[in-house]
Amino acid sequence: MKTALVIGASRGIGRQIALTLAKNGYNLCVAAKTSEDSEKLPGTIHTVTKEIQESGGNAIPVQCNARSESEIRQTVKTCIDHFGGLDVAVYNAGAILWNKVMETPFKRFDLMLDVNLRGAYVMLEEVLPYFTKKNSGKVIMVSPPIYSRFFKGKTPYSVSKIGVSILVQGLGLELKDTGVAVTSLWPATAIRAHVTDVLGVDKKIMRKPDIFADACLKIAQEESSRLNGQCLIDEDYLRSVGITDFTQYRCVPEHEPPRMMPLKFPSLKVAEEDTVTAKL
């Protein structure tokens, strides 16, 4: 039985990823900062673990503050020790503020760097030696393809998320022929979550988090490392593996949410891509 770790799994997309993987036969390490339920932040590592266990799955809760290097490292070790292995590691922890530079205090920028980028790096540093030693393993990061429009109006946030995408693309080159694959995933449309409910976002323009979780499952189940180093969009990837009916993911059955991501992304490769002597 394979094992998956999801960091940032107490609610929203992370919760659904954990539930979907567990439903499809994975042991789950449910990791997040929230361990106590509250009206402001409903959902904890314990409530998600209970959901999995009550549906017949196998899961353990691990409290993990994504700003803490030691807690991330210990979470990975706890998962491996408890289940005897690890096959898939998903980094979904995130801090969000979509503001311009002059509207983003340094304290908030620092938070986004810590949670979105630094935490992802720590998880990578902890899981990669284990994965490369056994010549197998999948890492899934939540970050977008790299394109200029993404930066508009949210440059500080973009720095933290595009940094993860750079990690994925660069690390993909380093992991070639190791049996290990790192892939990033981003939604094509808005996804319903606790924060969208609080903000009163119209459900007509959103999809259920199930679409993102289903894409994660398919990536985890890929037999090869063909997705290594790629930054994917959930809908586009699911279409590429034969899924064509997306009505099941609508929050409002009669309304198809508008796509917020471009249909085509630019290539970052240059003519000298494979020149051995090129260092810059």
TrEMBL record:
PROSITE patterns reported in the protein's UniProt record: ADH_SHORT
Domain of life: Eukaryota
InterPro entries xrefs: HSDL2, NAD(P)-bd_dom_sf, Sc_DH/Rdtase_CS, SDR_fam
Record's keyword annotation contains Oxidoreductase: yes
Gene Ontology terms for molecular function: oxidoreductase activity
Pfam families, per database record: adh_short (PF00106)
Protein name: Hydroxysteroid dehydrogenase-like protein 2
Sorted UniProt keywords: Oxidoreductase
